[in-house]
């Protein structure tokens, strides 16, 4: 029987969709082992659904990325130590009764591909970003697309008319975060015959996926988001969470609120906002008069106005982490104020929740552009003086999404995309057909 090794970049936003994809493959009869770092496997099960989990070393078995002196140092160790450890793991499996048939590697773990080639294992790339963002990185890196200068708007390569600030920050080539930018830009190698899987669906990104198909055997297989999160108190729907959700507090509070009355606020697992921005946001949420549930990670709580976490006013609740799928699936949530990470964006689409976009960096500005101008499932808050989004703008936008003129339109679009997302992954839908094509390809390799 075919056995697929799945190698995500070791963080929440990469493991969740690739684990969801892995579960989909097991439901189609494949054996799947997800490989991640020893540090991460300490906090997740060795068997998630029918997916086995195995560990490799990144050189930071005790403390993971946070114990490294910098992200650059960590990435270097992840590649050097990880490559050796992964090679040993593949050799071990290949001498067992369950040898690997192929590897699906995250495009943020390009060394996984090198290891696969060195041991003769076929490899398939998996992108955890949108097709539009992936295609921008590829076209910019190959010198085919130039990001426009400020003030100029370009419409090309299946993208909507876009100005510079709407491109992913790593495509701007402005010298910031050089290691990460190089990583992002050089993710996609290979040629027309090489499979690249995307966590998206054909209907959502028809033009972008068509452009990608000029360069690769590109297939959209998402959204890799569970539709119905289990409500057993532990499982957040993906089957693992690296941070413990404040489940009971959060859901109990939410369950007592009327339908569409709550603004859910989260900036994902990395982003950190300046103190001044946090103050504006805190005042904007309070001033909106709506209920709000705000995730501020423990390490970020120091950026909140003094005493706000403990006393956000009678309408608010601040938690350090939430069971996000359950929150978005709850009918009390009427607006998701989001940083527009790709997982959060797809999750909101999946559950039909209108969005208020406050993108920060990387792919987020592009995702926000699509949310407002292409899919019409939300609006973007405007950045004002000093690069900040002020409290008045936040109040105005919340009002617009929850009560304003555009409310019905946004809600209808959100509902439409929710249906289309569901259709894509249901039997016979576009993503389901693409997964079947992939499964047939893998099974043929194992014969
Ligand atoms: N998430 C969560 N609880 C939270 C905040 C985020 O479970 O309180 C999950 C969220 O559901 C998503 C992931 O963390 O799957 C964040 O990924 P995304 O791509 O949105 O942002 P990133 O963290 O990569 O910036």
UniProtKB/TrEMBL annotation:
InterPro entries: UDP_glucos_trans, UDP_glycos_trans_CS
PROSITE patterns according to UniProt: UDPGT
Keywords of this entry: Glycosyltransferase, Transferase
UniProt EC number: 2.4.1.-
Domain of life: Eukaryota
Single GO MF descriptor: quercetin 7-O-glucosyltransferase activity
Family: Belongs to the UDP-glycosyltransferase family.
Record protein name field: Glycosyltransferase
